[in-house]
Amino acid sequence: QIVAVHPHFVRSHFKQFVTGGKKLLLYERGWMNRWKPSVLHEGEGNVRNVKWRGHLIAWANNMGVKILDMISKQRITNVPRDDISLRPDMYPCSLCWKDNLTLIIGWGNSVKICSVKERHASEMRDLPNRYVEIVFQFDTEFYISGLAPICDQLVILSYVKEFSEKTEVECCARPRLDIVQPLPESCEEISSDALTVRGFQENECRDYHLEYSEGESLFYIISPRDVVVAKERDQDDHIDWLLEKKKYEEALMAAEISQKTIKKHKILDIGLAYINHLVEKGEYDLAARKCQKILGKNTELWEFEVYKFKEIGQLKAISPYLPRRDPVLKPLIYEMVLHEFLESDYEGFATLIKEWPGDLYNNTIIVQAVVDHLKKDPQNRTLLRTLAELYTYDQRYGRALEIYLTLRHKDVFQLIHKHNLFSSIRDKIVLLMDFDSEKAVDMLLDNEDKISIDRVVEELENRPELQHVYLHKLFKRDHHKGQRYHEKQISLYAEYDRPNLLPFLRDSTHCPLEKALEICQQRNFVEETVYLLSRMGNSRSALKMIMEELQDVDKAIEFAKEHDDGELWEDLILYSIDKPPFITGLLNNIGTHVDPILLIHRIKEGMEIPNLRDSLVKILQDYNLQILLREGCKKILVADSLSLLKKMHRTQMKGVLVDEENICESCLSPILPSDASKSFSVVVFHCRHMFHRECLPVSNTVSSVQFCNICSAKHRGPGSALLEMKK
């Protein structure tokens, strides 16, 4: 009823096979090529299924499943069947080896996955050296006719019975081929297919078988009338299904991922079908966007798709995605798109001109088209701005500059800089200043070598307010460059920018002071007049003006402090003596510059002075503070002097090393005698010069203090005798 051959039967020394029936017989080829049978098992009913893998033989009989180890010739396990109510001849056991040590058992509606393991040496005793462990066990919905492994999943051929509502009788349905993922106590269904075979209504569970070819991943479903071959679906099948369901994007993605393995399909064909599908659905923008990825660098396909979009009136949709470099399409394509925008969308046309390089299309044709449209609408700013850009691409910068200035466009300065158009703007300086004086002045000052200062001032002669802006910026950059215009700037500052007049007068060394004084006096500019009087040496008049015109005692005091002139303080005191507020201000600030007694003696008796007490207290506090500072400084000076004196005394009291290397500065012989027993006398000065006593010249002075002759001769200061050594 069943045969299983040795896995390596083709090799001459493995000529073995087993047969099933009432007994399990092993046949081996022996002497003279005769087959010798031996009984492996009997007595438990018919052996209905046998599978041989490696050194293990598994078989199923009426009682259950057994496994035999051919090496030890021992039976290592017995797996009993679960549902003994099922007839074993009607619902036979299905066996298959997943690998050399994993057996899959299907019987009735139960699946068990068994693993053969080595027994530990300490557990051997009289037991086989291998044992079996059930690692997965679960029940299925239908009866199992066959099973096979596929990766880490299982393929199960199921015998199905269903209840007929018409006849109210249970009948046979089409067999099912399921793929399941085993779990420890259950399973997860991955896929399920019902198979149409002839005569399935009359078949029983035992009539179906499932075999598989491990190397080819082919599965054979065998029924009494049909043999069905099943194989795993590949990416081509998957892409076919996706295209059938109109899931083009997923099909394209799947083709890109598996482009090396697919055989039926091409990525480009799928992509073109996807574009056509999107166009049919009316999703023009998405279709145009996908063209970038799908069409790539194929110029013929690009041009074909552009014409297709033109036919359906959707050139605008594809325009943002047209290639601009590598590849570049024919100029006619780009011109066609530009004409489409020019007829209906000026803003879109301007955007394309700005984004597209000028060499993509025939510039002359587009310029003429824009000029024709401007005849109908000459004041259209969008078309004028676009025409200026086209002139720029065509290197007609003069015309572009005229349009930009007319439009007062912000790009006018960039255009001038980029293309060095300074010769074209010599007579357009006023227009540039009116448009943006700050940018215009910065540009003119940055390019003085191209447009001179004199030329700019001359052009702005009739616009003094703009002339002032230019000269002010020039003065800020360099106080000396525009010195010939400093006299003119006095009037310009006075007229248009008084806050900056005083800083200008302070920083300028070229403006005529008399002229400036005249203008400031005419306009009654007090602060500027005070500064000019002071700068011209008339400090007393300046101080008088502060006191009479400004009546600001603090400023008057500050002015007197700056000049530190006794006459100015005298004038300030005389002017303030009859003005109590001024006296208060003087008392609060005069202490450190003038003796306060001079002011206090002149105050009239009975005059009421606000905050007099506080002012006098402040004077006394300031005086007391000065005394304390002087005493503190004196203490610090005395302490430092004493510390340094002690340090000098310690230094001079230290000994000086004298050895054989030292010489007498007079006779240049060693300072110490070679014979240590002889008597000697040595003089060492603080300057470290050394002499023999007999070599030292006799001093002519009355004082007994001696000085180093060498240091005295070099005017380095006399060194008095530090140490005299005698022996």
From TrEMBL:
Query: Know the name of this protein?
Result: Vacuolar protein sorting-associated protein 41 homolog
**RING-type domain segment(s):** 664-712
Reply yes or no: does the keyword Metal-binding apply: yes
Keyword Zinc (UniProt): yes
Write out the entry's keywords from A to Z: Metal-binding, Protein transport, Transport, Zinc, Zinc-finger
Looking up PANTHER family in the UniProt record yields: VACUOLAR PROTEIN SORTING VPS41 (PTHR12616), VACUOLAR PROTEIN SORTING-ASSOCIATED PROTEIN 41 HOMOLOG (PTHR12616:SF1)
What does the similarity note say? Belongs to the VPS41 family.
The protein's organism comes out as Thryothorus ludovicianus
What GO molecular-function term can you cite, just one?
zinc ion binding
Short name of one Pfam family: Beta-prop_Vps41
Q: Where in the cell is it found?
A: Cytoplasmic vesicle, Clathrin-coated vesicle; Late endosome
Which parts are the CHCR repeats?
441-585
